[in-house]
From TrEMBL:
Domain of life: Bacteria
Protein name per the record: Sulfate exporter family transporter
Keyword Cell membrane part of the UniProt annotation: yes
Transmembrane segments annotated in the record for this chain: 60-79, 114-133, 145-166, 178-197, 242-260, 280-297, 304-324, 336-358
Similarity comment: family membership: Belongs to the UPF0324 family.
Length: 359
C-alpha cells in the first residue's frame, strides 16, 4: 500500500502500535521576487530620509527611523515581510563589514598609550552606566548592553551590530527602535552642545578633539563637531573617533561570547548563529580592517565603501523600524530611554575629566 502521509503508524508482530516519523520536509528556498516588494519599499523610504536630511540638515538615521515607524503597518503585509526581514538582517551585516575599510591599526596607534587608556576609560564608563541604568529601570541586561555599547562605540552602527548578536528573542524590536531614536537624538544634541562646552572650558585643540571624538555617538557628527571647533581639533577628534570604531569588532565579539555563555549556564540551547565565538560579519570587519592596515587601498574605493555602508545601514534601520509595532513602542515607555541617557552622560563626564587631567 502506498503511503502519502509524512508520519504514519506501523504495527509489529505483537500488534503494538508505534509512530514512525519520516524525514523532515526540505526547507523551501525563496525566490528573489519574494524579497523585491519589501526591498523596494525600504529603499524608497531610505531615499526619502536621505533627501529630507540633505534639505533640512536633520540626522539621516533619525529620519529613517521616523519614516520607518510611520510605515510600520506595512510589516503586516505578507508581500513585504520577507524583504524587510532581509534588509534588517543581511543588509545590516554587509554594512558593518564595509566599515572595516574606514580605520587602520596605525590610526589607533597614533593616539598614544595615554590618550588610548583615557578613551578606554570613557568606553568602559559608558558601558557600565548603560548596564546599571537598565537594571535600575527594570529593562534587562540586554537593553543596557545595547545602549552602553552603542554610546561607547559609534552610535546607530554599533547598536545594529550589537542587536545582531543580542537577537529579537532577547530584546524586542520595539525597545530596540526606541533605543535607536534616543541614541540619534542624543548624538544630535551632543554635536551641537559639546563644542560650545569645550569653548567655555577653554580647552585646547587636542582636549576639545578628544572630548568630542570620545563622547559624541555618531561618527559623522563627532567628526563634524570636532572640525566645528577647529581644524586641529577636527584631526584629533577624527583619530579618537576612528579608534572607537575599531573597537566595534572586539566588543561585539565579547558580547556574543558573554551572551552565549549565559544561555549555556541557564541550560538553554543557543541558536546556531549565537554558538559561534564571533559573528561572521565581525570577522569580515576585522579582515577588511587588516587589509586596510597593510595595503594601500585607493581613496576612491574607501569612499565608495563608506557610502555603501551608510546606505546599507540606513536601509537596515528603516526596515527595522517598519517591523516595529507602534502599540509596542507605547508599551515600552520612557524607561527604555534611561540607559541611553545614563550612558551618554557618563561618556561625556568621563571624557571631560580625562581631557582636563590627562591631555
Amino acid at each position: 500500500m502506498k503511503r502519502t502521509a509524512p508520519d504514519y503508524n506501523a504495527g509489529d508482530l505483537f500488534g503494538e502500535i508505534y509512530l514512525v516519523e519520516s524525514a523532515p520536509a526540505p526547507i523551501k528556498r525563496r525566490a528573489i521576487s519574494d524579497y523585491l516588494p519589501g526591498l523596494i519599499l525600504c529603499t524608497t523610504a531610505s531615499l526619502a530620509a536621505a533627501w529630507l536630511a540633505g534639505q533640512y540638515g536633520f540626522p539621516i538615521i533619525l529620519l529613517g527611523l521616523l519614516i520607518g515607524l510611520a510605515l510600520s503597518f506595512m510589516a503586516d503585509v505578507e508581500a513585504t515581510s520577507h524583504g524587510l526581514d532581509f534588509a534588517s538582517r543581511r543588509l545590516l551585516q554587509a554594512g558593518i563589514v564595509l566599515l572595516g575599510l574606514q580605520v587602520t591599526f596605525a590610526q589607533v596607534g597614533s593616539l598614544g598609550w595615554l590618550a588610548f587608556a583615557g578613551l578606554l576609560t570613557v568606553m568602559v564608563a559608558a558601558f557600565a552606566a548603560g548596564l546599571l541604568a537598565a537594571r535600575w529601570a527594570g529593562q534587562g541586561r540586554e537593553a543596557g548592553i545595547l545602549a552602553g555599547g552603542a554610546t561607547a562605540i559609534c552610535g546607530a552602527s554599533a547598536a545594529l551590530a550589537l542587536y545582531g548578536v543580542i537577537g529579537r528573542d532577547r530584546l524586542d524590536q520595539a525597545r530596540f527602535s526606541v533605543t535607536l531614536v534616543g541614541i540619534a537624538v542624543a548624538s544630535a544634541i551632543a554635536m551641537s552642545v559639546y563644542p560650545a562646552i569645550a569653548q567655555m572650558a577653554g580647552f585646547g585643540d587636542r582636549q576639545a578633539g578628544f572630548l568630542i571624538g570620545a563622547s559624541v555617538h555618531d561618527a559623522a557628527q563627532a567628526i563634524g563637531g570636532a572640525f566645528d571647533y577647529s581644524d586641529a581639533a577636527g584631526r584629533d577628534g577624527t583619530v579618537v573617533k576612528l579608534a572607537r570604531v575599531a573597537m566595534l569588532g572586539p566588543i561585539v565579539a565579547l558580547t556574543a561570547l558573554w551572551l552565549g555563555r549565559s544561555a549555556g549556564a541557564k541550560g538553554e540551547t543557543a541558536p546556531a548563529g549565537r554558538r559561534a565565538l564571533m559573528p561572521w560579519f565581525i570577522i569580515g570587519f576585522f579582515i577588511l580592517l587588516a587589509l586596510n592596515s597593510v595595503l594601500s587601498i585607493p581613496e576612491f574605493s574607501r569612499d565608495l565603501a563608506l557610502t555603501s555602508s551608510k546606505a546599507l545601514l540606513l536601509m537596515a534601520v528603516t526596515a527595522t523600524a517598519m517591523r516595529s509595532r507602534l502599540a509596542d513602542l507605547l508599551d515600552a515607555g520612557w524607561k527604555t530611554l534611561v540607559p541611553v541617557v545614563a550612558a551618554s552622560l557618563a561618556s561625556f563626564v568621563v571624557a571631560f575629566v580625562v581631557a582636563i587631567t590627562v591631555l
